[in-house]
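Researcher: Next entry in the queue.
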Amino acid sequence: MALTSKVALVTGAAKGLGKGFSEILLKNGAKVALLDINEAAGKELKSAFDKQYGVDSTIFQLCDVSSEVQLKEAFRKTVEFFGKLDITCNNAGITNEQKWEKTVAINLNGVIRGTYLALQYMKKENGGQGGVIVNVASMAGLGPFLSVPVYTATKHGVVGFSRAMADASQLCDYGVRINILCPAFVRTDIVDSLSADDRTGQFSLLKAYTHKLVETHGMLEVSEVAEGFLQLVTDESKNGAAMRLTKKTGCSFMEFPSFQ
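Model: Structure for this entry, 260 residues:
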């Protein structure tokens, strides 16, 4: 898939991985709708991108992905502004074991809702042109991360939902591929929150375990994860693929048992 003139929507786009995904899309010729709950950071990023890629290459929209109303409106405005939608990245996520219902609402419900809205605009039976959805999970979606069990549950949910939807999309001939990105520790604000008592709550005693995991897997840079994301977007042979990324072992794809 060549990205020139393609239109993408990225949630959690203002900082961290979302910023990296947005930038690599723009570098490769796409236009990007930047969605984030952080208005100041979003507008600052939009201004920086304007100087480098042109004013019409991006649009920033204030959006809380846990709000059905806000997310629906953001998708509608994106298609209204750019005329179409080819790529969706459901990236927004948090770690907060104290406010676990909020974690579920953003990390899992937001991804499910974002996927359904993307299909509404992208699938061929609705007049869309097809495309690709990349849902951002985590290594915690492939195995238990003891310090953040609710975060682990949401990321497992993202992996399972995305794999099921990828097969459903293929069988229903939607023309939309759905892939999953599962990075280990990345140098972002979320990693910092893994050691914050107000986020880990009763599991704050497991800080030593978390630090040991970081030492074992290493720390990825955002740019490295963005390269993996780009592969999932552009490689048209990938559907239902779960890319595993760690600093020490690099990129690999998971093999799951089949229940078909």
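Model: The longest strand covers residues 176-183.
Researcher: Noted, moving on.
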